[in-house]
Specification:
Blueprint: H1 2-75
Amino acid sequence: MPPIEVVVVVDEELVAVAEVVVVVVTEAVVVVREVLVVVVVDVDVTLVVVVVVVVVVVEEVVVVVDGAGSSAATISPK
């Protein structure tokens, strides 16, 4: 009986350790997934911001060029 009890105690400890390991690994996986999601979201947001900024800058440049062209065109005939 004593060896069986010892085995039971060891098994319980192993089960407890295994549960802790599973919890830690699960939490680590969740954290890694969250980090990956955050990184992906940040990259997407950054790309979107860059694209928007580029589009806005291009539109402003086009407006300035058009304005300069039209003002030059209107000034030169006068």
